[in-house]
UniProtKB/TrEMBL annotation:
Heme binds at C475. Pfam families: p450 (PF00067). It comes from Gymnopilus junonius (Spectacular rustgill mushroom). Keywords: Heme, Iron, Membrane, Metal-binding, Monooxygenase, Oxidoreductase, Transmembrane, Transmembrane helix. Gene3D superfamilies: Cytochrome P450. Pathway: Secondary metabolite biosynthesis. Its cofactor is heme. The keyword Oxidoreductase applies. The chain crosses the membrane at residues 34-52, 64-81. GO terms for molecular function: heme binding; iron ion binding; monooxygenase activity; oxidoreductase activity, acting on paired donors, with incorporation or reduction of molecular oxygen. This is High nitrogen upregulated cytochrome P450 monooxygenase 2.
């Protein structure tokens, strides 16, 4: 005893105690600012040093800090792995249960969607993918989590806040609004801006943009002596989608905006901020506010601004222009490129689709592609759906969270404690044989037109098909996106013969798809020749 007392060090003992108390406090009160949190830790760890300076005679100061860090990390690890943790009953890899750092690494590698699929295969429909996070692939949970009376957005939006330039812009960003009422308020102008009348204006803009792309591609074919253009179709499709009348298709990406945007998707997929986008948005907003009178999305959003909530529409248009660019361009461009990729991989469907398009808009007669006929074209829509099923452009992180103070939520047989984040990964649901089989992993558009009664083993559960998410925070631009997908696919397939360039290994396309919250893609080198000049 005397020996123990003689070895007792008040500074180190208090350091250990401070670390345990800090862990308990952090558990209850999640810090919002990383800098504030780190400064707080240094301040707490310094208290024992200030109170017991005499101990410094026997220990260097760094030992005191090292002990604090070791105790707090060990305490967190033990608690997260222990049966005392509220999510202890849910299976998941040890590294995921200990820390989010492991998932940040997986995210960095870009194959998060495949990792989630492996986890669900190994552990079942509910997997613990983070210390306080679950991933769920039971389709019955979709309504409970994403539906009308579902949960607000999850903590990932805390870190992904776009337009961080000012509080005003933050408060106006629809996609990162975590409070249900605030989200509903911000969503109203978007819903109106995608109503029937505005959609007529947008379809005209999409048709003009498609003509522009058609003309550019034809021009490239004409330039070569064999009338065959060698192009990276993925790049041109991106210019088309991102172009949204920013002149990128005709002038090219002179300022590297698109390139910047793609590289800017990596940091937020790990830590989360895209400041350059705010600058571009401010430019766009100025342009819109001063001289541009086109009846595009910005025009309609401004028309529907709630005058009580935003006297000055500028912050609204800034955050919305970033949102429209980010939410709408990569998603549409990747899906369009995926559709062409699958059609090149499965020429049978290219031919069937071409016959359907020709039957409606014969190329010899120069019949214009009519938007109102597209929804009834079975093969066209089956092909689009099948590409969205296999490669949903937002593959993994549809995230919601049980709010603190709510008391928790019952999801099926499971009670989910407050503070838990829940992910519904479309990529995993879409490739789950419980919902789509047979040929679950194959591109098989016919599944969309088959009659269930033809084959008792045939499963096609469209309620598990959620490329645009579900509920009050689903994709606001879905109608526009679907129109763009239908129109441009029909135009390209009718007007051009398309094939992979020699030497391009098609498998590289899927290898290059990286899950950076939305998919980013690599080049799609194709040969194009006009079907009628
Ligand atoms: C193929 C194309 C597209 C796909 C697959 C897609 C998919 C999605 C998904 C999965 C979400 C997330 C919803 C959630 O967290 O539950 C979303 C949100 C959103 N999308 Fe799209 N999107 C596409 C194109 C577009 C376009 C063209 C626009 C508009 C220009 C757009 C605007 C938005 C907006 C504003 C949100 C946020 C909605 C909210 O938080 O209420 N999207 N989209």
């Amino acid at each position: 005893m005397d020996y123990l007392l003689s070895r007792f060090d008040p500074m180190l003992s208090m350091e250990g105690l401070a670390a345990l108390i800090t862990h308990v406090w952090v558990q209850e009160n999640e810090p919002e600012s990383l800098t504030g949190f780190l400064l707080g830790l240094v301040a707490i760890a310094s208290i024992p040093i200030i109170l017991f300076p005499s101990s410094l005679g026997t220990h260097p100061v760094w030992q005191s800090y090292a002990l604090f860090v070791t105790v707090i990390l060990s305490s967190i690890t033990v608690y997260r792995l222990s049966p005392l943790h509220p999510l202890a009953r849910h299976p998941g890899p040890v590294l995921c249960r200990i820390s989010k750092l492991w998932m940040a690494y997986i995210s960095f590698r870009g194959k998060q969607h495949e990792y989630f699929k492996e986890l669900h295969l190994r552990y079942g429909p509910i997997v613990r993918v983070g210390p306080n996070e679950l991933s769920v692939t039971d389709k019955d949970s979709i309504l409970i989590i994403l539906g009308k009376d579902g949960l607000p957005k999850g903590p990932l939006w805390q870190g992904r806040i776009i337009t961080p330039t000012s509080q005003k812009n933050k408060a106006n960003s629809l996609i990162s609004a975590r409070d249900l009422q605030h989200h509903a308020k911000l969503r109203k102008p978007w819903n109106k801006a995608f109503g029937l009348a505005p959609m007529i204006d947008y379809t005209e803009l999409v048709i003009n943009k498609s003509f522009e792309l058609n003309k550019l591609l034809l021009g490239m074919c004409r330039l070569s002596c064999d009338k065959t253009g060698h192009v990276d179709l993925s790049k041109w499709i991106s210019l088309f989608s991102f172009g949204h009348d920013f002149g990128l298709m005709t002038e090219g990406d002179k300022n590297g905006i698109m390139k910047n945007m793609e590289s800017a998707l990596l940091p937020p997929s790990i830590s989360q901020h895209i400041p350059w986008a705010a600058l571009f948005a401010v430019e766009q907003a100025k342009l819109r506010a001063t001289r541009d009178k086109k009846k595009d999305l910005f025009y309609h959003l401004l028309q529907n601004v709630d005058p009580e909530s935003t006297a000055d529409p500028f912050p609204l248009i800034v955050s919305n222009s970033v949102l429209a660019i980010i939410a709408g361009s990569d998603t549409t461009a990747t899906t369009l490129s995926n559709i062409i990729y699958y059609l090149l991989l499965y020429p049978k469907y290219m031919e069937e689709l071409r016959s359907e398009i020709e039957a409606n808009f014969p190329i010899e007669e120069h019949a214009p592609i009519q938007g109102d006929k597209l929804p009834a074209m079975k093969m066209l829509n089956a092909i689009i759906n099948e590409a969205l099923r296999l490669l949903p452009p937002l593959p993994t992180l549809l995230q919601r969270a049980v709010p603190k103070g709510s008391g928790g939520k019952l999801i099926g047989h499971f009670f989910i404690p407050e503070g838990t984040a829940i992910v519904i990964p479309p990529y995993c649901l879409h490739r789950d044989p419980r919902y789509f089989s047979p040929r679950t992993e194959e591109f098989w558009p016919d599944r969309w037109s088959m009659d269930k009664s033809d084959d008792p083993n045939f499963v096609h559960d469209a309620s598990a098909f959620i490329p645009f998410s579900h509920g009050p925070a689903n994709c606001a631009g879905k109608t526009l996106a679907i129109f763009e997908l239908r129109y441009l696919t029909a135009m390209l397939v009718r007007n051009f013969n398309i094939s992979f360039q020699d030497g391009f290994a098609p498998s590289v396309w899927e290898e290059n798809l990286l899950d950076r919250f939305v998919f980013t893609k690599g080049p799609l080198p194709v040969k194009l020749s006009p079907r009628a000049l």
